[in-house]
Amino acid sequence: MHREPIVMVCTCEMAGRVRGKGFPARELPGRMHKGVGWVPTNAMINAFSMIPATPFGTGGDLILVPDPATEVEVDFGDEGAKEHFFLGDLRHLDGTPWALCPREFLRRALAALKEAAGISLVAAFEHEFTYTGVAEGPGNPYSLEAFRRQGVFAEVFTAALRAAGLEPDSFMAEYGGRQYEFTIGPAEGIRAADQAVVAREMARAAAQRMGHRAIFAPILDPNGVGNGVHIHFSFKGADGAPLMHDAADPMGLSTVARQFIAGILAHQPALCALTAPSTVSYIRLRPNRWAPTKADLQQQDRAAALRVCPVLPGPDVARRFNVEYRVADGAASPYLALAAVVWAGVDGIRRGLAIPAEGPALPASLEAALAALEGDAVLRAAMGDEHHHAYLMHKRGEIAGLAGLDEAAQCARYAETY
Fold first, then answer.
1. How many helices (H) and strands (E) does the chain have?
2. What is the pLDDT of residues 351-388, one digit of tens each?
3. What is the pTM of this model?
4. Which CATH architecture has domain 6-98?
5. Strand pairing partners for 18?
6. Helix (H) / strand (E) containing 29
7. C-beta contacts of 52-57 below 8 A and 24+ residues apart
8. Span 105-417: which CATH code?
9. Where would I find the H helices in 164-279?
C-alpha cells in the first residue's frame, strides 16, 4: 500500500481542543511562511463540536502559521502514521496577529510581565487523567498494583514524550480507580504551554494506539474523583538568576512573587472562567475533593488555590522553589489558562498588591465565573474586547447546550470530548 506523509499545523483555542489542517509533508518549506487557511468562526466550535453562536458569521479568512520551534514528529514503531504536527499562530492575511490567537494572548502577557518587573516566567503543567485501559475497580491509590495495571502504556507514553522533545519527570497511579498523573520538566515562557498541549496529545496518541483513551475531562462521575491540572511557576531575571524565593519571608516568597500572587487572588473569580472552563469543573471544585474552594494561598496545602511547594534544603533552593496554581483542569487551553494567570499577576505587580488574609469563595458554577469575567476590567483589557466578547459567547453557548442534563449526563458529555 502506497503512502505519502502528511503533517498538520494546529491551534488550541477556547474549547481547549487541538484543531488544525493537514497537508503533504513535501509542501512543508512553503507552508512555514504562508501557513494554512483558517476561518474565524472555527474558534467558536465548542467542546461538543457545535457552534451555538458566533460574532464572526460565515465570512473572513485567517492563516494558521506553524512555529518551527514546536515541531513534533514521533514514530510509535507500529504500522500507523507518525504523529507529525506543529503548533502555530493565527494571523490575518497580512501576517499581523489575530485578536483571538491563543499563543499571542500568552505572548503579550509574558511581554507585560517583563515590562512590569524585568522577569521571565518558568512553568510546568502537572496533568491528571483517566486511562481506559484498566478495569473499573478499587483504586488502590498510589499503589504498585494500580501502577502495574496500566501495563506498558506508561513506557510507550514516556518514549513518545521524549521523542517529542519533552523531558518526562514522573508518572504515577493517582487516587481514582483508573486515574494517573504525569509531570514534565519546566520550560520558559510560551514553551511551557506548548509542552502542555503536546504532552496531552502524546498521552492520547499512546492510548489510541493501544486501543484505549486518555481522558482529561475535569470529572467523569459526580461522585468520583476529579482530574485537575496544576500549573507550577517561578521567575528568573535577565541574567537567569531565580527571583521567586526569599529565605527571610515566612513562606519563602520574594516581594515580586507576593505581588504576583496577590494579583492572581484578586482576580481569581474571573480567572476561573478561563482556567476551569466547563460546567463540570465546578463539581470538582467542591469541599472534600482535595481541590480548591476559595481564593487563598497556603504553604504545602493541596486544598489551596495557590500552594507554596516544598523544596528540600540545598544550595539550589532558590532555583527549585515554585508555587502551584491549582484552579485549572483539562478543559482549558493551556495558552489561555497560563496567559490569564500571568495577566492577573502582572496587575498585582503594577499595583503593588498585598496578599489578603482571607480570600473569597470560588464561583460555584461556570455561569458565575463568566459573570465575574464579564465584570473584570483588567482581564477584559488584557483579552481585548473582541476576544472577551467571543469567549463569553462561546462558553454561554456551551452551557445552553447542556440545558436539562443532570450532573452525570454532563460529565458523560465532557468525557466524550476531553
1. 14, 15
2. 999 999 888 999 999 999 999 999 999 999 999 999 99
3. 0.96
4. Roll (3.10)
5. 12
6. helix 28-34
7. 52/397, 52/398, 52/400, 52/401, 53/393, 53/397, 54/390, 54/393, 55/386, 55/389, 55/390, 55/393, 56/390
8. 3.30.590.10
9. 190-209, 255-266, 268-275
